[in-house]
């Protein structure tokens, strides 16, 4: 059986749960946004990191369970 890993994190734009292997941005307020939801003309906060969620999650202590 193939399972999909979900975490209790949701995209700030679409409000969908962020999957372990999705690509996200982390902004200056530590908000997670799917990379495909982000639009530079409407999102004015500085992006401080980006990449696959599982990598971002490992880098920042506040995202760990």
What do these coordinates show?
It is a single chain. The chain has 65 residues and is mainly beta. 11% of the residues lie in helices and 34% in strands. It is built from one helix and five strands, in the order βββββα. It has one helix at 53-59; strands at residues 6-10, 17-19, 23-27, 32-34, 47-52. The strands form two sheets. It has a three-stranded antiparallel sheet with strand order 4-3-5. Strands 1-2 form a two-stranded antiparallel ribbon. The protein starts with 5 loop residues before the first strand and ends in a 6-residue tail after the last helix.
Write a brief structural summary:
By secondary structure, this protein is mainly beta. It contains one helix and five strands, in the order E-E-E-E-E-H.
Which short descriptors sum up this protein?
single chain; 65 residues; mainly beta; three-stranded antiparallel sheet; 1 helix; 5 strands
């Amino acid at each position: 059986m193939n399972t999909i890993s979900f975490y209790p994190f949701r995209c700030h734009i679409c409000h969908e749960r962020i999957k372990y292997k999705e690509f996200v941005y982390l902004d200056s307020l530590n908000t997670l946004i799917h990379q495909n939801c982000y639009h530079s003309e409407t999102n004015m906060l500085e992006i401080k990191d980006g990449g696959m969620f599982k990598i971002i999650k490992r880098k920042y202590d506040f995202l760990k369970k």
